[in-house]
Amino acid sequence: MRVNPVGSLKGELTLPGDKSITHRAIILGALADGVSEITGALQSDDCRHTAKALSMMGAAVEELGGDRLQIRGGGLHGLKEPEEVLDLGNSGTTMRLLAGVLAAQPFFSVLTGDQYLRARPMARVAVPLRSMGATILGREDGKFPPLAIMGTRLKAIDYVSPIASAQVKSAILLAGLFTEGETTLTEPSLSRDHTERMFEAVGLPIYRNGLSLRVAGIKRIPAFQVAIPGDFSAAAFFIVAALVIPGSELTLRGVGVNPTRTGLLDALQSMGAEIELSERRVISGEPVADLFVRSQTLHGTEVAGTLIPRMLDEIPIFAVAAALAEGATTIRNATELRVKEVDRLAALTKELRRFGVQIEERPDGLVLQGNSSLSGCHCDSWGDHRMAMALAVAGLAARGSTTISDSSCVSSSFPDFWTRLDAILPGAAVPLA
Ligand code: S3P
After folding, report:
1. For residue range 79-89, what is the model confidence (pLDDT) as tens digits?
2. pTM score
3. Is residue 429 a contact partner of residue 418, using CB atoms and an 8 Å limit?
4. Does the CB atom of residue 196 touch ligand 1 within 6 A?
5. Which residue range forms the structural domain that includes residue 169?
């Protein structure tokens, strides 16, 4: 893809549905009794992998057109042994959340994915699920996919997770729905809480006490209807683009603003940004708002600690904002970035240097020296959707045009990113043959 700096962003946009919430709605719909309906669903490669895997186990997931999905679930114990290996593509969320469900099924399943997913750590779910009684094998003693799972009647556990990971938390909470007693899970700091909110929205009991959660085995999940808000992580690229491209004034409608996801807003605020939130409302238990962003001068900042899990997926686009701010920005306590779709600390260091950014890679983060001028270049997404979209924003703010290779990976989370970008900024995104 060629990205051209063609001027300011004006007007308004709505974003595709939230990826994390769509995965959870599909999984719960497949375990519910009868027909559930999801509106605002994200229809991207990752979510389709969740739907396909559950279809291979007997649930019927149908795209009704637009952003509606209908799921005919066979009930809590209705899944059937898949005849084939479940190929989950690039989707870490699918693999880790389904591992929690499959650990409780009276059958055998094998989960694999693309070269990136097969390099992602799975011991973080295999270890607690084994302690609940499931047999989980994988490469290097269960550290990497493919994973082979023989489910069983699970025992409830008290698990203290060493990492603030919503995927780990959700795998255990989903497994906990199938146990006899009560399962508790404590995390070191709050990761995104969509699973908890969706349990509440569809009427499943879940108790929160600080950083601890408690669920008990249930008998059934009644069919439900949920609406999914716009994905804050998709909005993030446009928020930063509008902030750093002079003359921009952009409204983003219906964006999920769950506080466990909006750490980027806090980080940008600490850089001097003012972003207006209006029309606050709650959709299916999730806070939603319209966002208004205009271009502003940003200054360097430091992000660390409990803010990191709240802006985990936004570090690539945040690094672009930092590269264009005045002064230095430090990102600390972000080692989890090394085990995302790719090692995002290494990828950002290498790719942002091509734009002329002064950036230092640290074991747990980055130090960037802000500079208002980036130079267009040829760069590579590393096959990572969020890298591709962050680099596109760098390209929009650079002098001269930028080419991004391996740009089609945006289909994991935001299939029409390039067409949306080109619609709001005609000429900004030109596919290369
Ligand atoms: C996700 C959780 C996050 C995030 C990922 C989606 C989820 O990973 O990076 O893109 O839907 O639960 P963690 O498990 O590291 O929190």
Report:
1. 999 999 999 99
2. 0.98
3. yes
4. no
5. 19-227
